[in-house]
């Protein structure tokens, strides 16, 4: 059951889709067809044929109304379109100028390393770090050896966090000098505590110093929260709710841009660039979304299979969560296609297909050829053909771009997922519970689409792929990094939808298994236990991030981390606000520009 599997069906409990559908209709009325969007890096090639590493397009989508019959109206709209294009060109030139200016400023900060670190932190939180990757990387390499016994806790913790976030291995021993002889951490001001708290969330398994730091700072900040000044209270409150390391990139960028604009003494050039960039990336996302909707309509699956979920917007939200960097345009589009297909497959196994039909379909998927399709019912043939063609198209794209044959890997991960669906169909179709918690979760990672998404992106991104690390995907179990990210997704899913599933009589949840195997009595105990497990899994992923001997490319490690971040955004909700929250995220990221 994919990352959206517990979201409501189109024909039941569908209030999640109401705003999104209206936004989608508004978007389709106002956007230029995908084929008209052009990126300078690819001359006059349509954007949908870009390579994986496409940068921001030079031509942003127009928001002018569509041309209708009538000469005067046509001329008027042509003028509006030209005016929009002129404004877009000015905006892009201004962005490029600001990038140059800020890069110079960043390189000139040499007097106080804390100022350099704070500026890097601001740039990354504003969502514009990808413009300065080389500059930031060179600065951080120098910062690796810049720890000093003279600097304060705030600076040490900030440097530690930024270096680990970038994948550098830094020992937590740098915090030993902030401890008393008794072994306890020394008291500090709120900014120092906050900085140490954020750093402690970068901890890996077995790092007791950081475990102690998290416990110490968390208790101190909670105790003093009501006594803090309003702006500091807000910062601390947000950190205690979700640490920076665990926040979804595009949502954090939007939130921090608004926060940064209210800070006294903020850098006006930095704020202007962040605002321009946010809107331009949003325009790029609209173009990508137009291509996904075009593909989905041409595919016609939902028209032919009325039971299938029609959710291109929510699928695309996930892809933006996993891949916030603008250069991954093609990856987002292709991944959204796989998610949309997965939702239909999930509906077949979950609600529509009969057991004998599901067995036939599973056998056909294992055979991996068109001959296997002949024995299937008509509705399954349509879905099988859509999956067959889409997977082959993605395999061809990777072969064309990288020269690597990946179709066997892609097909294998689909087989794993379909077999997982079959296992769940036997469990829950028969009204029985899974044998144990571990078996449920591991199978649930596969049916959540985690392995499928990460394997596809491993090859679509293509950075750092070798025969050695690719071979890790052809054997089971999947890499620990993939498993940890997928388990976090599955646990957040179960935690966020437990009550809804129970009311529906759905047994597909880890909640009752936690209660049974861990001897838990209350809902609060279950929640606490699952959250502890999620934090432990974060340690596993952090360990992969900072490992000196990384088996996986840094790019796919970041994708796995982003999967965990996006899972929390989608499924962590209080007071039954889940549906409106997801709608708000869609509206903010795709349809509402910043002023």
Automatic annotation (TrEMBL):
Q: Does the keyword Metal-binding apply?
A: yes
Is Aminoacyl-tRNA synthetase one of the keywords UniProt gives this record?
no
GO BP annotations of the record are: diterpenoid biosynthetic process
Assigned keywords, A-Z: Magnesium, Metal-binding
Q: Per its UniProt entry, which superkingdom is the organism in? A: Eukaryota
Which Gene3D superfamilies does the UniProt entry name for this protein?
Farnesyl Diphosphate Synthase, Terpene synthase, N-terminal domain
- A single MF term (Gene Ontology): terpene synthase activity
Could you tell me which residue ranges the Terpene synthase N-terminal domain spans? 82-240
Which Pfam family name is an example for this entry?
Answer: Terpene_synth_C
Per the database record, which ranges form the Terpene synthase metal-binding domain? 297-540
Q: This chain belongs to which protein, by name? A: Geraniol synthase-like protein
Instruction: Tell me the organism.
Output: Dracocephalum officinalis (Hyssop)
